[in-house]
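Subject: Protein record for review, amino acid sequence with backbone structure tokens
Category: Structural biology, sequence-to-fold work with a learned token vocabulary.
Format: Residues in single-letter code; tokens as whole numbers, each standing for a residue.
Body of memo: The sequence and its backbone structure tokens, given next.
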Amino acid sequence: MASKLRNIIEDIARDYLNSALTLRYDICTCPACKNDMLAYILSRVPAKYVTTEEGALHTVIQQSRVEHQAVIGRVIIEAIEVISKNPRHKLKEDKNKVFSLLLETIKENRGLDFTHYHQELLKRRIAIRLRANRMETYSEYLRYLINNPEEYDKLFATLCINVSEFFRDPEVWKKIRQILKNIVEDKIKSSNPYICIWSAGCADGEEPYSIAILLKEILKDKTYNLHIDISGTDVDKKSLAFAQEAIYEKNLIKNVDKELLDKYFEPQDNCWRVKKEIRSMVNFYYLDLTGQEYKKNVDVIFCRNVFIYFDRGLQEQILMKFYNALRNDGYLVMGKSETLISEAKHIFSEVDLDCRIFRKKEVNSITSP
């Protein structure tokens, strides 16, 4: 009996396609569209036939998966793009229109405007909640939000993923320590004893507390009659409440030297709590970067790993507002995964590109593009 041939590329492509469509609620993923996407992929990726009787079939499939992964991945993106824009059946609803309505409802009911956030990132995050609630469409989820307002807390926890730790990216903090030291020395010599530092998008508070610890170390228990104002702001009210409690698990303080740990933390319920002398240096409050007014005459603004959520237009607006909030020669610290958009390079100069630290240019030093 002749052995039955099997195109293992089809098996691999189907697995990859199913995985790629797992959280796609913004397009039609019905069986007909899935089959059309698979057909598109197979028409562009050469078949590889093996016999089903082959003993090492699993090994062959795994080898082929590695060999063709890049090609299949690229074609899958094309297939999803082409078929989703030209389905061979009439769509029941305009998914993009309903998604926009969902964002507008969130804005009206909770005051958070996500319309200028990266849409693809938002869709992936909201898709997590749809899947958790076993829903298939944005319209289903919209109705659920309206009838179950407690879902907003879970949605915002998903949208505002707070990944932080004390002294995150230690090499950046070495540079920050020197900057803070210079600021302290300048303020002591000047007639302005006011130091203002703002952590925008402070999540659970690790960053502003790290700043406070560094300043304590620099001052060495001396005050020099300096007034220090450290602010931590965020749109996640639960994170702000957590930050005020200042109790952290051990994995979040892994970058804290033992000397600093003993000096500025106290053990509590298998965790560590920031001591009162550091907690009293930081003020936390709610602030939406997309709409509310900013502080003025700030010496350093930390806004790390926040810009990844915003589209280019909103980045430009916020960077200009940061520029206006900073004092002359004030510093802006961004996340290591972020880049300063080209327009902003006319108003900020590089201090350390690797650490993503920039400095406000004086007005008379700004040249036209």
Observations:
- Residues 55 and 61 are 12 Å apart (CA to CA).
